[in-house]
Design brief:
Layout: E1 5-11, H1 25-42, H2 47-53, E2 55-66, E3 75-85, E4 88-97, E5 103-115, E6 121-122, E7 131-132, E8 160-166, H3 180-197, H4 202-207, E9 210-221, E10 230-238, E11 245-254, E12 260-272, E13 277-279, H5 283-289
Parallel strand pairs: 3-7
Antiparallel strand pairs: 1-3, 2-5, 2-9, 3-4, 4-5, 5-6, 8-10, 9-12, 10-11, 11-12, 12-13
Helix pairs in contact: 1-3
Length: 295
């Protein structure tokens, strides 16, 4: 079995793009989820087999590195492989430009299996075929290493409410549970809503010649959501990992019980809107974000 095989192709349309004019993180998540479905299908876990098992796969943890922006009209190709991991398979997916083949975005998903009716954890069946050996992945194997930071177990002191939302039927998969796209959509909206409240909305930044983009998302999914579930997001900013970067920590909670649903650490960067290169945030931007620092 080839280590990484084509698993998804996507065209960037206007409705895929965010306020900065590039592919929004929720649509990267969608395409990686589709690639994971193809990778698991090659291992014998296609829709018919999952229906026989009464089971549904979903990431336990997900990490995404954004190397390059995709913009309107571009075409992305995602290659993926399934690797045997502790506690279940891991899907490694790499997105590239269709024409040049230049690498653009990488994703690692540590997969879990749930009962399709109750969402209770299930043991993985034997995967009869299609598993790639970690040693065959070459330099891509380096993406499977340990996480650089530990995410908080729940809401931290100083975090602000940044978003409230509900899961709708169009946010869900064939099992009636929210897709990873819905989680990433909420994370992205929470960051935008919080920055807008600090008068750092896209209009203000663009007038100053700035935009922003995510460099990395690290997500832990604590619980899956169904249509009708309501959630609340709490967000804070932590110490940047470099002079040009910023970090958000989001904690998504069940609006009724307060139980954690998902947690993410987002590393982002400010960009010169004309030159399209990373720049340090100006002092006036830093001063406006001081009130949401949690470190």
């Amino acid at each position: 079995v080839a280590p990484l095989e084509r698993a998804q192709t996507g065209n960037v349309y206007p409705w895929h793009c965010d306020q900065w004019g590039h592919l929004n993180v929720q649509n990267y998540a969608l395409w990686f989820a589709e690639a994971a479905a193809h990778a698991l299908h090659r291992c014998g876990l296609g829709p018919s087999r999952l229906a026989e098992l009464g089971a549904t796969p979903f990431p336990r943890r997900q990490r995404v590195w954004y190397r390059k922006e995709f913009r309107l009209g571009e075409v992305a190709v995602t290659d993926a492989a399934t690797i045997a991991g502790t506690g279940g398979p891991t899907v490694l997916a790499r997105m590239r430009e269709a024409i040049s083949g230049a690498p653009a975005t990488d994703c690692v998903m540590e997969m879990a299996l749930h009962d399709a009716a109750t969402l209770a954890p299930r043991d993985w069946p034997d995967l009869p075929s299609g598993l790639a050996a970690e040693g065959s992945l070459g330099e891509a194997a380096g993406l499977l290493g340990p996480w650089p930071v530990e995410l908080p177990a729940g809401r931290l002191p100083g975090m602000r409410e940044s978003l409230r939302g509900v899961v709708n039927t169009w946010d869900c998969d064939q099992h009636g549970t929210a897709t990873t796209k819905r989680y990433f959509n909420a994370f992205s909206d929470a960051g935008l809503a919080l920055m807008t409240g600090l008068q750092l909305d896209p209009k203000v930044l663009l007038e100053a010649g700035l935009s922003s983009a995510a460099l990395e998302y690290r997500v832990i999914y604590d619980r899956r959501m169904r249509a009708g579930d309501a959630f609340v997001m709490f967000t804070g900013m932590t110490a940047a990992e470099g002079r040009k970067t910023w970090r958000f920590v989001h904690v998504m909670e069940d609006a009724a019980t307060g139980a954690p649903i998902a947690r993410t650490d987002v590393v982002g960067v400010f960009i010169d809107a004309k030159a399209r290169r990373a720049v340090p945030p100006p002092d006036w931007v830093r001063s406006r974000t001081d009130g949401i620092r949690i470190d």
